[in-house]
Design a protein that fits this description.
alpha+beta; about 200 residues
């Protein structure tokens, strides 16, 4: 999780200055400033306080509601942060976690190469500025035997202007995978695109 972004977002939603927010989570203003600046990671105690605030429905943003829906989804889905080249995984569903483990970024994910190519192509074409509404891709994982997936990519934006990729996966047959990749360059179809 990007703690700098999380702290900034929570503090802005609560309309608190760093000092007042620091008191709320049981730390100093300097620590909050360092976390927001990306210079320090929160301690386990601060993480617990931040998670409690983030999950509080009274102050939770629509984006946080969406993140919670992914975490509790019975389907294979995940949320990727596009602000970093490693494409950090912001969150994922339990079925997805069971499939790929505790990978923190797409680069650490066994089947990440095809997905990374898809997302890089989407970002290059304007995924992170609202020009693409959705896309469909296909890829295979590195399991033994491999499993084949169709993935729907949708752009998501949080309350402070950062872009994410929401990916939801459905298992398909090898024949469907091969047919999809043969029909579409790199197995990616952009379903809704607004050119410059």
């Amino acid at each position: 999780m990007d703690w700098a972004r999380t702290v900034r977002s929570l503090r802005q939603r609560l309309r608190l200055k760093q000092g007042a927010f620091a008191q709320m989570v049981g730390t100093s203003q300097t620590t909050v400033s360092r976390i927001e600046g990306g210079l320090a990671d929160p301690t386990p105690e601060i993480i617990a306080a931040l998670e409690k605030l983030r999950k509080n429905p009274a102050i939770r943003s629509t984006f946080d509601d969406f993140v919670a829906s992914i975490e509790h989804s019975p389907y294979h889905c995940l949320l990727l942060d596009t602000d970093n080249e490693t494409l950090p995984i912001e969150t994922m569903s339990e079925p997805m976690r069971a499939r790929i483990g505790d990978a923190r970024a797409l680069a650490n994910f066994r089947a990440g190469e095809e997905v990374t190519q898809h997302i890089t192509a989407l970002i290059d074409r304007g995924f992170s500025n609202g020009r693409i509404e959705s896309a469909v891709g296909s890829w295979k994982d590195a399991g033994n035997p491999p499993q084949f997936w169709q993935v729907v990519y949708s752009p998501m934006r949080d309350g402070i202007g950062s872009w994410y990729v929401y990916a939801t996966l459905t298992q398909i047959s090898e024949a469907e995978y091969e047919a999809h990749r043969g029909e579409h360059d790199g197995g990616l179809i952009i379903t809704s695109y607004t050119p410059d």
